[in-house]
Amino acid sequence: MNIEIQALSISVGRKTLLDTIDLTIKPNELSILIGPNGAGKSTLLKACSGDMLPSEGDISINKKSISSFTPLELANTRAVMTQSYQMGFSFTVMEVVSMGCFNYEEQISQVQKQDIIHDVMSFMDIEHLAERSFITLSGGEQQRTQLARVLAQLWLPYEQVEARYLFLDEPTSSLDVFHQYHVLSLAKELTKRNIGVLAVIHDLSLAASFADQLVLLNNGKIVTKGRPESVLQRSHLERVYGIKAEYYHHSQAVKPSIILDQNQ
Amino acid sequence: MQEMIMLNKKRGKRQIMAIPVTLGLLICSAFLALVIGAVSLSESDILTFVSHGFSQTHSSLSTRVLFEIRLPRTVLSLGVGGALGLCGAAMQALFRNPLADPSLIGVAGGGALGAVTVIVLGHSMFPQAMDVIGIYALPIGAMLGCLGVCAIIYRLSNRQGQFTIITLLLSGIAVNAIVGSLIGILTLVSSDSELRELTFWTMGNLGGNSWALTLPVLVLIFISLIGLSRLAKPLNLYLLGEAQAQHLGVSVSNLKKKVFIYTAMAVGAAVSISGMIGFVGFVVPHLVRILIGPDHRFLFPVSMLFGASFLTITDVIARIVIIPAELPIGLVTSALGGPFFLFVLYKQTSRY
Fold first, then answer.
1. Hey, of A43, A102, A105, A138, which one would you mutate to test binding to chain B, going by the most B CBs within 10 A of its CB?
2. Which residues contact A72 (CB under 8 A, 6 or more apart)?
3. How many angstroms from the chain centroid is the CA of residue B125?
4. Of A196, A253, B323, B340, which one has the fewest beta carbons inside 10 Å?
5. How would you classify the pairing of strands A15-25 and A30-34?
6. Could you state, in order of their start, the residue ranges of all structural domains in chain B?
7. Which residues in chain A have their CB less than 8 angstroms from residue B251's CB?
8. B300 with B93: CB under 8 angstroms?
9. What is this model's ipTM?
10. Which residues in A lie closer than 8 A to residue B247 (C-beta atoms)?
11. Residue A252 belongs to a domain with what CATH number?
12. What CATH number was assigned to the domain covering residues B2-52+59-351?
Protein backbone atom coordinates (compact mmCIF):
# COMPACT_ATOMS: atom_id res chain seq x y z
CA MET A 1 0.00 0.00 0.00
CA ASN A 2 1.91 2.97 -1.34
CA ILE A 3 1.75 5.72 -3.84
CA GLU A 4 4.00 4.59 -6.65
CA ILE A 5 5.14 7.23 -9.10
CA GLN A 6 6.77 5.62 -12.11
CA ALA A 7 8.62 7.49 -14.84
CA LEU A 8 6.21 10.39 -14.47
CA SER A 9 6.59 13.21 -16.98
CA ILE A 10 4.30 16.19 -17.34
CA SER A 11 4.65 18.76 -20.06
CA VAL A 12 2.44 21.69 -20.92
CA GLY A 13 2.95 22.79 -24.50
CA ARG A 14 6.68 22.60 -25.05
CA LYS A 15 7.63 23.17 -21.46
CA THR A 16 8.53 20.09 -19.46
CA LEU A 17 7.40 20.56 -15.88
CA LEU A 18 8.34 17.13 -14.59
CA ASP A 19 10.87 14.80 -16.16
CA THR A 20 10.78 11.04 -15.47
CA ILE A 21 10.10 11.16 -11.75
CA ASP A 22 10.27 7.93 -9.76
CA LEU A 23 9.11 8.16 -6.18
CA THR A 24 7.39 6.08 -3.54
CA ILE A 25 5.26 7.65 -0.84
CA LYS A 26 4.68 5.36 2.10
CA PRO A 27 1.69 5.69 4.44
CA ASN A 28 3.79 5.70 7.59
CA GLU A 29 6.16 8.40 6.43
CA LEU A 30 6.28 12.16 6.19
CA SER A 31 7.79 13.02 2.82
CA ILE A 32 8.82 16.59 2.18
CA LEU A 33 9.48 18.15 -1.21
CA ILE A 34 12.06 20.91 -1.33
CA GLY A 35 13.60 22.83 -4.19
CA PRO A 36 13.81 26.32 -5.66
CA ASN A 37 10.84 28.20 -7.17
CA GLY A 38 9.62 26.58 -10.36
CA ALA A 39 11.35 23.27 -9.65
CA GLY A 40 8.08 21.35 -10.12
CA LYS A 41 7.12 20.74 -6.51
CA SER A 42 3.55 21.92 -6.84
CA THR A 43 3.17 20.12 -10.17
CA LEU A 44 4.24 16.86 -8.57
CA LEU A 45 1.78 17.44 -5.75
CA LYS A 46 -1.00 18.20 -8.22
CA ALA A 47 -0.22 15.06 -10.18
CA CYS A 48 -0.41 12.97 -7.00
CA SER A 49 -3.70 14.55 -5.97
CA GLY A 50 -5.26 13.92 -9.39
CA ASP A 51 -5.45 17.52 -10.59
CA MET A 52 -3.01 17.03 -13.45
CA LEU A 53 -2.83 14.01 -15.69
CA PRO A 54 0.56 12.46 -16.47
CA SER A 55 1.84 13.08 -19.98
CA GLU A 56 3.90 9.94 -19.61
CA GLY A 57 4.37 7.37 -16.89
CA ASP A 58 1.87 6.45 -14.23
CA ILE A 59 0.85 7.10 -10.65
CA SER A 60 -0.83 4.37 -8.70
CA ILE A 61 -2.42 4.85 -5.32
CA ASN A 62 -2.70 1.66 -3.30
CA LYS A 63 -1.96 -0.38 -6.43
CA LYS A 64 -4.73 1.26 -8.43
CA SER A 65 -4.02 3.69 -11.23
CA ILE A 66 -4.98 7.24 -10.30
CA SER A 67 -6.96 7.74 -13.52
CA SER A 68 -9.39 4.97 -12.56
CA PHE A 69 -10.55 6.72 -9.37
CA THR A 70 -13.83 8.63 -9.28
CA PRO A 71 -13.72 12.03 -7.52
CA LEU A 72 -15.48 10.56 -4.49
CA GLU A 73 -13.14 7.56 -4.26
CA LEU A 74 -10.20 9.91 -4.44
CA ALA A 75 -11.73 12.08 -1.72
CA ASN A 76 -11.94 9.01 0.52
CA THR A 77 -8.28 8.21 -0.13
CA ARG A 78 -6.56 11.56 0.04
CA ALA A 79 -6.99 15.15 1.19
CA VAL A 80 -5.30 18.16 -0.37
CA MET A 81 -4.34 21.55 0.94
CA THR A 82 -3.58 23.89 -1.95
CA GLN A 83 -1.32 26.91 -1.95
CA SER A 84 -4.06 29.43 -2.62
CA TYR A 85 -7.78 29.46 -2.13
CA GLN A 86 -10.28 32.09 -3.08
CA MET A 87 -13.61 32.64 -1.40
CA GLY A 88 -16.08 35.07 -2.88
CA PHE A 89 -18.82 34.68 -0.31
CA SER A 90 -18.71 35.14 3.42
CA PHE A 91 -18.89 31.67 4.90
CA THR A 92 -18.07 31.43 8.58
CA VAL A 93 -15.02 29.47 9.75
CA MET A 94 -17.30 26.78 11.14
CA GLU A 95 -19.09 26.44 7.80
CA VAL A 96 -15.80 26.16 5.90
CA VAL A 97 -14.49 23.48 8.26
CA SER A 98 -17.74 21.52 8.10
CA MET A 99 -17.32 21.18 4.33
CA GLY A 100 -14.43 18.82 5.01
CA CYS A 101 -16.95 16.20 6.15
CA PHE A 102 -18.63 16.05 2.74
CA ASN A 103 -17.36 12.64 1.66
CA TYR A 104 -18.59 10.74 4.72
CA GLU A 105 -21.39 13.04 5.86
CA GLU A 106 -24.16 10.55 5.11
CA GLN A 107 -22.57 7.87 7.27
CA ILE A 108 -22.48 9.82 10.51
CA SER A 109 -24.94 11.58 12.80
CA GLN A 110 -25.15 15.32 13.27
CA VAL A 111 -23.69 14.93 16.77
CA GLN A 112 -20.68 13.03 15.46
CA LYS A 113 -20.18 15.64 12.77
CA GLN A 114 -20.33 18.38 15.40
CA ASP A 115 -17.69 16.51 17.42
CA ILE A 116 -15.37 16.12 14.43
CA ILE A 117 -15.64 19.80 13.54
CA HIS A 118 -14.99 20.69 17.16
CA ASP A 119 -11.97 18.36 17.32
CA VAL A 120 -10.23 19.63 14.19
CA MET A 121 -10.91 23.23 15.13
CA SER A 122 -9.37 22.82 18.55
CA PHE A 123 -6.46 21.00 16.91
CA MET A 124 -5.80 23.94 14.63
CA ASP A 125 -6.42 26.40 17.43
CA ILE A 126 -9.25 28.26 15.70
CA GLU A 127 -12.19 27.55 18.01
CA HIS A 128 -12.40 31.19 19.01
CA LEU A 129 -12.86 32.12 15.33
CA ALA A 130 -15.78 29.73 14.74
CA GLU A 131 -18.39 32.39 14.06
CA ARG A 132 -16.11 34.77 12.16
CA SER A 133 -16.46 35.25 8.43
CA PHE A 134 -13.62 33.50 6.59
CA ILE A 135 -12.75 36.51 4.42
CA THR A 136 -12.18 38.78 7.43
CA LEU A 137 -9.44 36.52 8.86
CA SER A 138 -5.71 37.13 8.64
CA GLY A 139 -3.63 35.06 6.23
CA GLY A 140 -2.40 32.68 8.90
CA GLU A 141 -5.86 32.22 10.37
CA GLN A 142 -7.24 31.47 6.91
CA GLN A 143 -4.52 28.91 6.40
CA ARG A 144 -5.30 27.23 9.72
CA THR A 145 -8.99 27.17 8.82
CA GLN A 146 -8.26 25.48 5.51
CA LEU A 147 -5.97 23.01 7.28
CA ALA A 148 -8.74 22.18 9.72
CA ARG A 149 -11.08 21.52 6.79
CA VAL A 150 -8.49 19.28 5.14
CA LEU A 151 -7.95 17.41 8.40
CA ALA A 152 -11.68 16.87 8.79
CA GLN A 153 -11.68 15.04 5.47
CA LEU A 154 -9.31 12.40 6.87
CA TRP A 155 -10.75 12.34 10.37
CA LEU A 156 -12.91 9.30 9.81
CA PRO A 157 -12.50 6.39 10.06
CA TYR A 158 -9.93 6.41 12.86
CA GLU A 159 -8.69 2.94 12.07
CA GLN A 160 -8.60 2.38 8.36
CA VAL A 161 -7.02 -0.66 6.80
CA GLU A 162 -6.57 1.08 3.47
CA ALA A 163 -3.74 3.58 3.52
CA ARG A 164 -4.69 7.23 3.00
CA TYR A 165 -2.68 10.29 2.04
CA LEU A 166 -2.45 13.97 2.76
CA PHE A 167 -0.93 16.47 0.34
CA LEU A 168 0.11 19.84 1.70
CA ASP A 169 1.33 22.58 -0.60
CA GLU A 170 3.26 25.07 1.55
CA PRO A 171 0.98 24.61 4.55
CA THR A 172 3.17 26.78 6.73
CA SER A 173 3.76 29.74 4.40
CA SER A 174 1.72 32.25 6.45
CA LEU A 175 2.05 30.69 9.87
CA ASP A 176 3.99 31.93 12.89
CA VAL A 177 6.80 29.78 14.25
CA PHE A 178 4.63 28.08 16.87
CA HIS A 179 2.00 27.05 14.36
CA GLN A 180 4.61 25.95 11.80
CA TYR A 181 5.95 23.41 14.25
CA HIS A 182 2.47 22.54 15.42
CA VAL A 183 1.28 21.74 11.90
CA LEU A 184 4.29 19.58 11.08
CA SER A 185 4.10 17.72 14.38
CA LEU A 186 0.50 17.03 13.56
CA ALA A 187 1.46 15.77 10.10
CA LYS A 188 3.96 13.47 11.80
CA GLU A 189 1.22 12.25 14.16
CA LEU A 190 -0.98 11.39 11.19
CA THR A 191 1.65 9.08 9.75
CA LYS A 192 1.05 6.84 12.79
CA ARG A 193 -2.57 6.47 11.71
CA ASN A 194 -1.74 4.90 8.36
CA ILE A 195 -1.77 8.25 6.58
CA GLY A 196 1.11 9.15 4.30
CA VAL A 197 1.94 12.83 4.11
CA LEU A 198 3.58 14.63 1.20
CA ALA A 199 4.31 18.29 1.85
CA VAL A 200 6.03 21.13 0.07
CA ILE A 201 8.07 23.19 2.53
CA HIS A 202 10.43 26.04 1.74
CA ASP A 203 12.08 26.36 5.12
CA LEU A 204 14.98 23.87 4.97
CA SER A 205 15.49 23.70 8.72
CA LEU A 206 11.83 22.98 9.25
CA ALA A 207 11.92 20.33 6.53
CA ALA A 208 15.03 18.74 8.01
CA SER A 209 13.44 18.63 11.46
CA PHE A 210 10.42 16.59 10.44
CA ALA A 211 11.01 14.71 7.20
CA ASP A 212 11.29 10.94 7.10
CA GLN A 213 12.03 11.27 3.42
CA LEU A 214 13.33 14.48 1.89
CA VAL A 215 13.04 14.93 -1.88
CA LEU A 216 15.12 17.62 -3.55
CA LEU A 217 13.72 18.75 -6.90
CA ASN A 218 15.32 20.98 -9.50
CA ASN A 219 14.18 21.73 -13.07
CA GLY A 220 11.54 19.02 -12.95
CA LYS A 221 13.95 16.29 -11.90
CA ILE A 222 14.72 14.64 -8.59
CA VAL A 223 18.28 15.63 -7.64
CA THR A 224 18.38 13.36 -4.64
CA LYS A 225 16.12 11.88 -2.01
CA GLY A 226 16.50 10.17 1.34
CA ARG A 227 17.30 11.09 4.93
CA PRO A 228 17.65 14.86 5.57
CA GLU A 229 21.33 14.70 6.50
CA SER A 230 22.26 13.02 3.22
CA VAL A 231 20.05 15.23 1.03
CA LEU A 232 21.09 18.53 2.56
CA GLN A 233 24.76 18.18 1.76
CA ARG A 234 26.83 21.27 1.01
CA SER A 235 27.34 20.26 -2.64
CA HIS A 236 23.61 19.75 -3.28
CA LEU A 237 22.67 23.04 -1.66
CA GLU A 238 25.23 24.93 -3.68
CA ARG A 239 24.27 23.31 -6.98
CA VAL A 240 20.49 23.61 -6.58
CA TYR A 241 19.97 26.76 -4.53
CA GLY A 242 23.28 28.53 -5.17
CA ILE A 243 23.88 29.00 -1.44
CA LYS A 244 26.83 27.98 0.66
CA ALA A 245 25.43 26.31 3.74
CA GLU A 246 25.89 23.43 6.12
CA TYR A 247 23.50 20.92 7.65
CA TYR A 248 24.06 21.18 11.40
CA HIS A 249 22.67 18.91 14.09
CA HIS A 250 24.15 19.77 17.47
CA SER A 251 22.69 16.92 19.51
CA GLN A 252 19.59 14.76 19.92
CA ALA A 253 18.15 17.40 22.25
CA VAL A 254 17.73 19.97 19.48
CA LYS A 255 16.28 20.07 15.97
CA PRO A 256 18.72 20.17 13.07
CA SER A 257 19.13 23.37 11.10
CA ILE A 258 20.76 24.75 7.99
CA ILE A 259 23.44 27.28 8.73
CA LEU A 260 24.54 29.70 6.02
CA ASP A 261 28.15 30.70 5.53
CA GLN A 262 29.15 34.28 6.23
CA ASN A 263 30.62 34.67 2.75
CA GLN A 264 28.15 33.64 0.08
CA MET B 1 -15.43 41.02 17.40
CA GLN B 2 -18.17 40.53 19.95
CA GLU B 3 -20.69 42.01 17.57
CA MET B 4 -19.44 39.76 14.79
CA ILE B 5 -20.17 36.66 16.81
CA MET B 6 -23.62 37.92 17.73
CA LEU B 7 -24.27 38.58 14.07
CA ASN B 8 -23.50 35.07 13.06
CA LYS B 9 -25.45 33.50 15.86
CA LYS B 10 -28.27 35.62 14.54
CA ARG B 11 -27.57 34.27 11.09
CA GLY B 12 -28.14 30.72 12.30
CA LYS B 13 -31.49 31.67 13.76
CA ARG B 14 -32.39 33.56 10.62
CA GLN B 15 -31.59 30.56 8.46
CA ILE B 16 -34.03 28.47 10.42
CA MET B 17 -36.70 31.17 10.49
CA ALA B 18 -36.35 32.23 6.86
CA ILE B 19 -38.15 29.33 5.22
CA PRO B 20 -41.39 29.54 7.26
CA VAL B 21 -41.39 33.34 7.00
CA THR B 22 -40.99 33.41 3.22
CA LEU B 23 -43.50 30.59 2.90
CA GLY B 24 -45.99 32.72 4.82
CA LEU B 25 -45.16 35.67 2.60
CA LEU B 26 -45.74 33.49 -0.44
CA ILE B 27 -49.18 32.39 0.76
CA CYS B 28 -50.17 35.98 1.57
CA SER B 29 -48.99 37.28 -1.79
CA ALA B 30 -50.77 34.48 -3.65
CA PHE B 31 -53.96 35.29 -1.75
CA LEU B 32 -53.62 39.00 -2.57
CA ALA B 33 -53.02 38.17 -6.22
CA LEU B 34 -56.23 36.17 -6.31
CA VAL B 35 -58.34 38.80 -4.56
CA ILE B 36 -57.09 42.03 -6.08
CA GLY B 37 -57.77 43.03 -9.65
CA ALA B 38 -60.02 44.83 -12.08
CA VAL B 39 -62.98 42.62 -11.12
CA SER B 40 -63.24 42.58 -7.36
CA LEU B 41 -63.58 39.22 -5.70
CA SER B 42 -64.22 38.77 -2.00
CA GLU B 43 -62.30 36.52 0.33
CA SER B 44 -65.37 34.31 0.68
CA ASP B 45 -65.40 33.73 -3.06
CA ILE B 46 -61.87 32.42 -2.86
CA LEU B 47 -62.64 30.29 0.16
CA THR B 48 -65.70 28.66 -1.40
CA PHE B 49 -63.65 28.10 -4.48
CA VAL B 50 -60.85 26.45 -2.55
CA SER B 51 -63.25 24.42 -0.42
CA HIS B 52 -64.89 23.06 -3.56
CA GLY B 53 -61.56 21.58 -4.51
CA PHE B 54 -60.79 24.09 -7.27
CA SER B 55 -63.66 22.76 -9.35
CA GLN B 56 -65.90 25.01 -11.36
CA THR B 57 -69.16 24.02 -9.75
CA HIS B 58 -71.13 27.10 -10.76
CA SER B 59 -69.81 29.06 -13.67
CA SER B 60 -70.57 32.52 -12.42
CA LEU B 61 -68.47 35.43 -13.58
CA SER B 62 -66.39 35.45 -10.43
CA THR B 63 -65.40 31.79 -10.61
CA ARG B 64 -64.53 32.17 -14.26
CA VAL B 65 -62.39 35.22 -13.58
CA LEU B 66 -60.78 33.34 -10.78
CA PHE B 67 -60.18 30.10 -12.59
CA GLU B 68 -59.35 31.32 -16.06
CA ILE B 69 -57.54 34.58 -15.35
CA ARG B 70 -56.36 35.05 -11.78
CA LEU B 71 -55.36 31.52 -10.88
CA PRO B 72 -53.18 30.75 -13.92
CA ARG B 73 -51.60 34.17 -13.65
CA THR B 74 -50.87 33.77 -9.96
CA VAL B 75 -49.48 30.29 -10.37
CA LEU B 76 -47.37 31.52 -13.27
CA SER B 77 -45.99 34.49 -11.36
CA LEU B 78 -45.10 32.18 -8.47
CA GLY B 79 -43.39 29.75 -10.83
CA VAL B 80 -41.52 32.38 -12.82
CA GLY B 81 -40.51 34.32 -9.70
CA GLY B 82 -39.30 31.15 -8.02
CA ALA B 83 -37.33 30.18 -11.12
CA LEU B 84 -35.72 33.59 -11.45
CA GLY B 85 -34.82 33.74 -7.74
CA LEU B 86 -33.32 30.28 -7.51
CA CYS B 87 -31.56 30.39 -10.89
CA GLY B 88 -30.07 33.77 -10.02
CA ALA B 89 -28.59 32.22 -6.89
CA ALA B 90 -27.30 29.27 -8.92
CA MET B 91 -25.65 31.55 -11.50
CA GLN B 92 -23.97 33.61 -8.79
CA ALA B 93 -22.58 30.40 -7.39
CA LEU B 94 -21.50 29.07 -10.79
CA PHE B 95 -19.57 32.25 -11.58
CA ARG B 96 -18.53 32.62 -7.94
CA ASN B 97 -19.55 36.23 -8.33
CA PRO B 98 -22.46 38.02 -6.66
CA LEU B 99 -22.99 40.13 -9.79
CA ALA B 100 -23.78 37.25 -12.15
CA ASP B 101 -27.29 36.62 -13.41
CA PRO B 102 -28.91 34.20 -15.87
CA SER B 103 -28.58 36.57 -18.84
CA LEU B 104 -24.84 35.73 -18.87
CA ILE B 105 -25.50 32.30 -20.32
CA GLY B 106 -27.65 33.74 -23.08
CA VAL B 107 -31.18 32.99 -21.87
CA ALA B 108 -32.42 36.56 -22.04
CA GLY B 109 -30.72 37.44 -25.33
CA GLY B 110 -31.70 34.16 -26.94
CA GLY B 111 -35.30 34.50 -25.79
CA ALA B 112 -35.46 38.04 -27.12
CA LEU B 113 -33.98 36.99 -30.46
CA GLY B 114 -36.54 34.18 -30.81
CA ALA B 115 -39.40 36.47 -29.85
CA VAL B 116 -38.28 39.25 -32.18
CA THR B 117 -37.92 36.81 -35.04
CA VAL B 118 -41.47 35.58 -34.54
CA ILE B 119 -42.89 39.09 -34.16
CA VAL B 120 -41.09 40.62 -37.12
CA LEU B 121 -40.65 37.76 -39.56
CA GLY B 122 -43.34 35.30 -38.46
CA HIS B 123 -46.29 36.49 -40.45
CA SER B 124 -44.41 37.36 -43.60
CA MET B 125 -42.22 34.28 -43.82
CA PHE B 126 -44.26 31.44 -42.34
CA PRO B 127 -47.91 32.50 -42.64
CA GLN B 128 -49.31 28.93 -42.56
CA ALA B 129 -47.23 27.88 -39.59
CA MET B 130 -48.28 31.00 -37.71
CA ASP B 131 -51.92 30.21 -38.35
CA VAL B 132 -51.55 26.67 -37.09
CA ILE B 133 -49.70 27.35 -33.86
CA GLY B 134 -51.35 30.72 -33.21
CA ILE B 135 -50.79 31.96 -29.67
CA TYR B 136 -48.05 29.40 -29.13
CA ALA B 137 -45.84 30.97 -31.78
CA LEU B 138 -44.25 33.61 -29.57
CA PRO B 139 -43.45 31.36 -26.58
CA ILE B 140 -42.18 28.60 -28.86
CA GLY B 141 -40.02 31.09 -30.76
CA ALA B 142 -38.61 32.52 -27.55
CA MET B 143 -37.97 29.06 -26.12
CA LEU B 144 -36.18 27.95 -29.28
CA GLY B 145 -34.12 31.14 -29.27
CA CYS B 146 -33.12 30.52 -25.66
CA LEU B 147 -32.17 26.93 -26.24
CA GLY B 148 -30.29 27.76 -29.44
CA VAL B 149 -28.19 30.53 -27.94
CA CYS B 150 -27.57 28.60 -24.70
CA ALA B 151 -26.52 25.56 -26.74
CA ILE B 152 -24.04 27.65 -28.73
CA ILE B 153 -22.54 29.14 -25.57
CA TYR B 154 -22.43 25.71 -23.96
CA ARG B 155 -20.63 24.22 -26.97
CA LEU B 156 -18.13 27.07 -27.09
CA SER B 157 -17.20 26.75 -23.43
CA ASN B 158 -17.16 22.95 -23.35
CA ARG B 159 -13.92 22.01 -25.04
CA GLN B 160 -12.37 18.58 -24.57
CA GLY B 161 -14.72 17.93 -21.69
CA GLN B 162 -13.31 20.93 -19.81
CA PHE B 163 -16.10 23.33 -18.98
CA THR B 164 -14.21 26.40 -17.84
CA ILE B 165 -15.94 29.36 -16.28
CA ILE B 166 -13.74 31.99 -17.86
CA THR B 167 -14.45 30.66 -21.38
CA LEU B 168 -18.12 30.48 -20.46
CA LEU B 169 -18.07 34.09 -19.36
CA LEU B 170 -16.19 35.34 -22.41
CA SER B 171 -18.09 33.32 -24.99
CA GLY B 172 -21.31 34.38 -23.21
CA ILE B 173 -20.40 38.03 -23.63
CA ALA B 174 -19.37 37.57 -27.28
CA VAL B 175 -22.45 35.55 -28.24
CA ASN B 176 -24.73 37.99 -26.42
CA ALA B 177 -23.17 40.83 -28.40
CA ILE B 178 -23.80 39.02 -31.70
CA VAL B 179 -27.36 38.22 -30.64
CA GLY B 180 -27.84 41.86 -29.68
CA SER B 181 -26.83 43.03 -33.12
CA LEU B 182 -29.19 40.51 -34.76
CA ILE B 183 -32.02 41.83 -32.60
CA GLY B 184 -31.02 45.32 -33.67
CA ILE B 185 -31.19 44.41 -37.36
CA LEU B 186 -34.63 42.86 -36.93
CA THR B 187 -35.79 45.90 -35.00
CA LEU B 188 -34.62 48.07 -37.86
CA VAL B 189 -36.79 46.30 -40.41
CA SER B 190 -39.85 46.06 -38.15
CA SER B 191 -43.02 48.08 -38.61
CA ASP B 192 -44.31 50.49 -35.94
CA SER B 193 -46.80 48.05 -34.45
CA GLU B 194 -44.24 45.26 -34.41
CA LEU B 195 -41.78 47.55 -32.72
CA ARG B 196 -44.35 48.30 -30.05
CA GLU B 197 -45.10 44.62 -29.45
CA LEU B 198 -41.42 43.90 -29.27
CA THR B 199 -40.68 46.67 -26.81
CA PHE B 200 -43.43 45.45 -24.52
CA TRP B 201 -42.13 41.90 -24.75
CA THR B 202 -38.74 43.02 -23.47
CA MET B 203 -40.40 44.67 -20.47
CA GLY B 204 -42.17 41.49 -19.46
CA ASN B 205 -45.80 40.59 -18.96
CA LEU B 206 -47.39 37.75 -17.05
CA GLY B 207 -50.96 38.31 -18.25
CA GLY B 208 -53.13 36.69 -20.87
CA ASN B 209 -51.76 33.19 -20.60
CA SER B 210 -54.15 30.26 -20.58
CA TRP B 211 -53.61 27.05 -18.65
CA ALA B 212 -52.52 25.41 -21.89
CA LEU B 213 -49.51 27.73 -22.04
CA THR B 214 -48.90 27.94 -18.33
CA LEU B 215 -48.79 24.26 -17.47
CA PRO B 216 -45.93 23.12 -19.73
CA VAL B 217 -43.84 26.06 -18.56
CA LEU B 218 -44.52 25.20 -14.94
CA VAL B 219 -43.58 21.57 -15.52
CA LEU B 220 -40.23 22.60 -17.05
CA ILE B 221 -39.57 25.03 -14.20
CA PHE B 222 -40.53 22.44 -11.61
CA ILE B 223 -38.17 19.81 -13.00
CA SER B 224 -35.23 22.22 -13.20
CA LEU B 225 -35.77 23.65 -9.76
CA ILE B 226 -35.84 20.19 -8.22
CA GLY B 227 -32.64 19.42 -10.09
CA LEU B 228 -30.94 22.60 -8.91
CA SER B 229 -32.03 22.16 -5.30
CA ARG B 230 -30.22 18.85 -5.16
CA LEU B 231 -26.97 20.60 -6.08
CA ALA B 232 -27.02 22.90 -3.04
CA LYS B 233 -24.42 21.05 -1.01
CA PRO B 234 -21.86 20.50 -3.79
CA LEU B 235 -22.28 24.14 -4.78
CA ASN B 236 -21.27 25.16 -1.25
CA LEU B 237 -18.02 23.25 -1.71
CA TYR B 238 -17.65 24.71 -5.18
CA LEU B 239 -17.43 28.16 -3.59
CA LEU B 240 -14.18 27.05 -1.92
CA GLY B 241 -12.66 26.84 -5.40
CA GLU B 242 -12.92 24.33 -8.23
CA ALA B 243 -9.80 22.36 -7.30
CA GLN B 244 -10.82 22.33 -3.64
CA ALA B 245 -14.31 21.04 -4.45
CA GLN B 246 -12.80 18.32 -6.61
CA HIS B 247 -10.48 17.34 -3.75
CA LEU B 248 -13.47 16.99 -1.47
CA GLY B 249 -15.09 14.53 -3.85
CA VAL B 250 -17.32 16.71 -6.04
CA SER B 251 -17.30 16.01 -9.77
CA VAL B 252 -16.88 19.68 -10.61
CA SER B 253 -17.21 19.47 -14.37
CA ASN B 254 -20.53 17.60 -14.07
CA LEU B 255 -21.74 20.05 -11.46
CA LYS B 256 -21.10 23.04 -13.72
CA LYS B 257 -22.83 21.41 -16.67
CA LYS B 258 -25.87 20.53 -14.57
CA VAL B 259 -26.18 24.05 -13.19
CA PHE B 260 -25.95 25.44 -16.72
CA ILE B 261 -28.55 23.11 -18.19
CA TYR B 262 -31.09 23.39 -15.36
CA THR B 263 -30.79 27.18 -15.34
CA ALA B 264 -31.15 27.43 -19.10
CA MET B 265 -34.23 25.21 -18.91
CA ALA B 266 -35.96 27.01 -16.05
CA VAL B 267 -35.20 30.58 -17.10
CA GLY B 268 -35.74 29.72 -20.77
CA ALA B 269 -39.21 28.43 -19.95
CA ALA B 270 -39.93 31.47 -17.78
CA VAL B 271 -38.70 33.97 -20.36
CA SER B 272 -40.57 32.29 -23.20
CA ILE B 273 -43.92 32.97 -21.61
CA SER B 274 -43.38 36.08 -19.54
CA GLY B 275 -40.89 38.05 -21.61
CA MET B 276 -37.84 39.55 -20.04
CA ILE B 277 -38.23 40.36 -16.37
CA GLY B 278 -35.00 41.88 -15.25
CA PHE B 279 -33.54 42.39 -11.83
CA VAL B 280 -35.35 39.62 -9.91
CA GLY B 281 -32.69 37.02 -10.58
CA PHE B 282 -30.00 39.40 -9.45
CA VAL B 283 -31.57 41.20 -6.52
CA VAL B 284 -33.46 38.41 -4.77
CA PRO B 285 -30.55 36.04 -4.09
CA HIS B 286 -28.38 39.00 -3.22
CA LEU B 287 -30.80 40.24 -0.58
CA VAL B 288 -31.34 36.77 0.79
CA ARG B 289 -27.59 36.23 1.04
CA ILE B 290 -27.18 39.44 3.01
CA LEU B 291 -29.84 38.25 5.42
CA ILE B 292 -29.04 34.57 5.92
CA GLY B 293 -25.55 34.02 4.48
CA PRO B 294 -24.27 32.09 1.47
CA ASP B 295 -25.13 28.50 2.49
CA HIS B 296 -27.07 27.16 -0.52
CA ARG B 297 -29.07 24.70 1.50
CA PHE B 298 -30.92 27.74 2.86
CA LEU B 299 -30.19 30.25 0.12
CA PHE B 300 -31.84 28.17 -2.61
CA PRO B 301 -35.24 27.55 -1.03
CA VAL B 302 -35.45 31.02 0.48
CA SER B 303 -34.49 32.73 -2.79
CA MET B 304 -37.07 30.65 -4.57
CA LEU B 305 -39.86 31.43 -2.11
CA PHE B 306 -38.90 35.08 -1.85
CA GLY B 307 -38.56 35.44 -5.63
CA ALA B 308 -42.00 33.93 -6.07
CA SER B 309 -43.58 36.27 -3.51
CA PHE B 310 -41.72 39.29 -4.84
CA LEU B 311 -42.81 38.73 -8.42
CA THR B 312 -46.40 37.99 -7.39
CA ILE B 313 -46.65 41.20 -5.39
CA THR B 314 -45.08 43.28 -8.14
CA ASP B 315 -47.50 41.70 -10.59
CA VAL B 316 -50.42 42.77 -8.39
CA ILE B 317 -49.03 46.30 -8.41
CA ALA B 318 -48.49 46.20 -12.17
CA ARG B 319 -52.14 45.20 -12.58
CA ILE B 320 -53.77 47.81 -10.39
CA VAL B 321 -51.72 50.97 -10.81
CA ILE B 322 -53.33 52.11 -14.05
CA ILE B 323 -56.58 50.10 -14.30
CA PRO B 324 -57.88 49.18 -16.87
CA ALA B 325 -54.45 49.12 -18.53
CA GLU B 326 -51.45 47.32 -17.05
CA LEU B 327 -47.86 48.29 -16.44
CA PRO B 328 -45.23 45.93 -17.88
CA ILE B 329 -44.01 43.96 -14.88
CA GLY B 330 -40.34 44.45 -15.74
CA LEU B 331 -40.78 48.16 -15.06
CA VAL B 332 -42.26 47.49 -11.65
CA THR B 333 -39.60 44.98 -10.59
CA SER B 334 -36.83 47.43 -11.45
CA ALA B 335 -38.63 50.46 -10.04
CA LEU B 336 -39.36 48.71 -6.74
CA GLY B 337 -36.36 46.41 -6.54
CA GLY B 338 -33.75 49.03 -7.33
CA PRO B 339 -34.38 51.47 -4.48
CA PHE B 340 -35.07 48.66 -2.01
CA PHE B 341 -31.81 47.00 -2.92
CA LEU B 342 -29.89 50.27 -2.62
CA PHE B 343 -31.42 50.79 0.80
CA VAL B 344 -30.34 47.37 2.04
CA LEU B 345 -26.89 47.77 0.52
CA TYR B 346 -26.47 51.16 2.13
CA LYS B 347 -27.52 49.87 5.54
CA GLN B 348 -25.20 46.91 5.14
CA THR B 349 -22.11 48.93 4.29
CA SER B 350 -22.73 51.66 6.86
CA ARG B 351 -22.76 49.06 9.61
CA TYR B 352 -19.08 48.21 9.26
1. A102
2. A103, B249, B251
3. 31
4. A253
5. unpaired
6. 2-52+59-351
7. 70-72
8. no
9. 0.89
10. 49, 74-75, 78-80, 82, 153
11. 3.40.50.300
12. 1.10.3470.10
